[in-house]
Amino acid sequence: MRKPCCDKQDTNRGAWSKQEDLKLIDYIRKHGEGCWRTLPQAAGLLRCGKSCRLRWINYLRPDLKRGNFAEDEEDLIVKLHALLGNRWSLIAGRLPGRTDNEVKNYWNSHLRRKLISMGIDPNNHRPNTINLPRPHHKNSQAVSSTAKLSAGLKTPTNDQPARSRVAIIVTKYRTVQVA
């Protein structure tokens, strides 16, 4: 059985201080990323190795990109999610400077809701036809804007061969075709 990574009694928990961040940054600049289990003691930190690794990867790495996601990043996340599903590390690998955790959180808090509000099912990226609004009167010839939107989308049919099917993804700004 593997020994625990740290003694829970002698470690700091909670928010990181500026001094701890500086110690971790200085140590990794001098020695590089190595064994995360031995790093805290070698760097003079009273932290768990896992805590040091997560702090470095998600917050302190110099190549991290901070701030809002750009429109092209949003479009790429939607396209890749349609192809790869919830494989956040693979999706984040296509977005330089973004972590898998950051991409996952952005999907769940922003993009997923955008697709739902546009009438797109975020799981299969197809128009959600269940809750389309209906005309007010039975004899009315008016067509709602949502119905026009869904009618304008091209969706693959079952009589097409599986290889030639094309998924149509509607993003906030335009319709994107993914092979």
UniProtKB/TrEMBL annotation:
Matches recorded under PROSITE patterns: HTH_MYB (PS51294), MYB_LIKE (PS50090)
Domain Myb-like: 8-60, 61-111
Major site of localization recorded for this protein: nucleus
Gene Ontology process terms (BP): regulation of primary metabolic process; response to other organism
Stretches assigned to the HTH myb-type domain: 8-60, 61-115
Compartments, as annotated in UniProt: Nucleus
InterPro entries according to UniProt: Homeodomain-like_sf (IPR009057), Myb_dom (IPR017930), Myb_TF_plants (IPR015495), SANT/Myb (IPR001005)
GO cellular component terms, semicolon-separated: nucleus
Region (Disordered): 120-145
Listed GO MF terms: transcription cis-regulatory region binding
Keywords: DNA-binding, Nucleus, Repeat, Transcription, Transcription regulation
Subunit structure comment from the entry: Can form complexes with MYC2, MYC3 or MYC4.
Protein name listed in UniProt: R2R3-MYB transcription factor
Species assigned in the record: Prunus yedoensis var. nudiflora
